[in-house]
Amino acid sequence: MYARLLTWWTILRICLEERLVYRGDFALGTLMRFLPFITQIFLWSAVFAARDQSPLRGYSYNEMIAYLLLTNISRAFSSMPGLASSIAQQIRNGEIKKFLIQPIDLIGFLLLARVAHKVVYYVVALAPFALVFYLARGFFSGWPDVTTMLAFLVSLVMAFLLGFFLEATIGMVGFWFLEVSSLLFVYQLFSFFLSGQMFPIDILPSAARAAVDLLPVPYLAYFPVAVFLGKVQGTALAWGLLVQAGWVVLFMVASRVALHRGLIRYSGFGG
Amino acid sequence: MAIIELVGLAKAYRVYQKQEGLLASVRGLFHRQYRTVEAVRGIDLQVEQGEFVAFLGPNGAGKTTTLKLLSGVITPSGGTARVMGHVPWKRENAYRRRFALVMGQKNQLWWDLPAQESFRLHQQIYLIDPARFERTRDELVELLGVANLLKQPVRELSLGERMKMELIAALLHSPEVLFLDEPTIGLDVIAQHNIQAFLRHYQQLRRITILLTSHYMKDVAALCKRVVIIAQGRIIYDGSLSGIIDRFSHHKVITLLFPGDDRMPSDLARYGEVVEEFAPKVKLRVPRKNVPDVLAGILARHAIEDVSVEDPPLEEVIAEMFSLAGEAQTGDGEVDRVAERVT
Prior knowledge:
- The structure holds two protein chains of two kinds.
- Chain A is mostly helical.
- Chain A has one domain.
- Helix content of chain A is 75%, strand content 0%.
- Chain A is globular, with a radius of gyration of 20 Å.
- By secondary structure, chain B is of the alpha/beta class.
- Chain B folds into two domains: 197 residues, P-loop containing nucleotide triphosphate hydrolases (Rossmann fold); 60 residues, Alpha-Beta Plaits, CATH 3.30.70.
- Helix content of chain B is 38%, strand content 27%.
């Protein structure tokens, strides 16, 4: 057991080192991610000006901006740049063989690599994030209470896991279709509009809202922010976290099954 | 008991046949045509512990497929294989800790990190005892003379240096069986020689079992006593390297040196096929059984300054064999005939 932990720790450490090779790229990318945000501020201030600043389905102007700022945090956890495409690419170019001949678990390895990726990202991104939130502090109405904060953190960690296993599952589809980019595009499109990164999904008409609620994507961006802003509380909060956990487990299993069946297919067909 | 044992091992792939053109591509969305490629068609092979065996064969003969089957990357469509008592395609960790596969065309090291980091990772993946890890690593690093390159990112290494690092990574867990697929591909002569020297030394030192595929006859000649030739997915020869010439070459090459340019006769073709002519030197290809008569005839009729009789170069013999097997591509019968002729 201890030996296995040490193995995973070493993998994590080496992945960290590898990510640090690209630290400059990271720092620049972090600042850039806030650029589109400026246009969002203009957009929503125009919308609210047209409404004489009356709240929009429970969101005041300040809350809306706070919401959009916070989605950057949940996206920082749940977005998995390059994960699905790199899995599909490894299947296509045969690099996946490495994981077949070595005594190592592919999904566990990828997860650790992604944790390392994220940890390095947070370290580099902390300063730019802090700066932006400090400048935008006027949009927030203080810190949430401890329970809410804890629930927020839990939902962020689960958003990370959900994002990882969802994209890993999409990547494994590469065992059947060599190219997963169009599938990935559809997923990203859905995720872009329905995860809540463009607008809070509770401003949608109730029928649409009910449909979106059946999808896993809102748990990638909307849900953690809604938790932070106190939009979900009490039983709704507990239920929300439970459903999020359910999605995580579902895709955890799905990615395993896809890998297992995919390997049978791969090894049967060659490559 | 043999350490590697293959019985009737076969592998057929289903390959999608894409027709040319856009219309055909659209049609391919609905109706796909597949062709079955029999990469390996029933191989029987036994390798004893400590043997160094070369797999030779033209491209597409089934060499790499066989290595992939033995390393468990693919599952066979027929037959059985056991390596150290394990069925490779079950991919048990117990098996995966005991062998290694090095592919000359694939990189297993971390591209952006120094090789020593990949080594450290292997230590953990293979659960190698730290003290043993360091001992093995230092030994391999010294043998290959790469101590000064350990801290350099892999992407900045030359191809030859990288191959040495790949070998170290593969040998850190002291595998008992090593599969090498074209380990010297693309390397210059010196680098090839270094890798050969290392492999020979290491194999003698550790008595591990190695299966090697290579296109460089020099690799094979330098390393392997036993050669297995695969063509069209079947073994057509299994024996010593020198045995290939005995069995397959029905010719000898006679080199004649005449006392002067003007003293070279013009009717040499009557003795055999003239393969090279640089007056006053000529090379003749002569059927083996005719060699004594031809030599006697020439010596009786012409003044000769020097003469030598040699086997044709191994490359040539093997190329001839491959082309024979290649001609058989149209029908199976021919392969059988080739196989019959040689075994």
